[in-house]
Design a protein that fits this description.
Elements: H1 3-99
């Protein structure tokens, strides 16, 4: 094997290595691109889920506030009705005593 044959063989090997490196670089670029797309899609899903949960939570808070307000109103009405009933009974007892029963 002559010196020029060795140089040609080394050149072919270098070309093959460069081609292989170029293919790897292309594959890595494609993989990086796919990972970025997946990351973006995942981030979008997380943001959508966060918004949906926030909306539902706000709705639940509003419903709870309404229930608490209604409960207060019911308690006040019950207390008022109880006081009125007590006053009527007391007045009835007083009237019965006054009439001599």
């Amino acid at each position: 094997m002559s010196a020029s044959d060795t140089t040609k063989e080394t050149g072919r090997n270098s070309d093959a290595v460069l081609i292989a490196m170029g293919k790897l670089e292309g594959q890595l670029a494609a993989m990086t691109n796919l990972m970025q797309q997946n990351h973006q899609a995942t981030q979008t899903r997380i943001e959508d889920l966060s918004k949906a949960v926030g909306v539902r939570f706000d709705g639940i808070e509003k419903r709870l506030a309404t229930l608490e307000q209604n409960e207060r109103g019911t308690a006040i009405r019950a207390a008022g009705t109880g006081a009125l009933a007590g006053a009527i009974v007391a007045a009835g007892l007083q009237a019965m005593r006054a009439l001599g029963h």
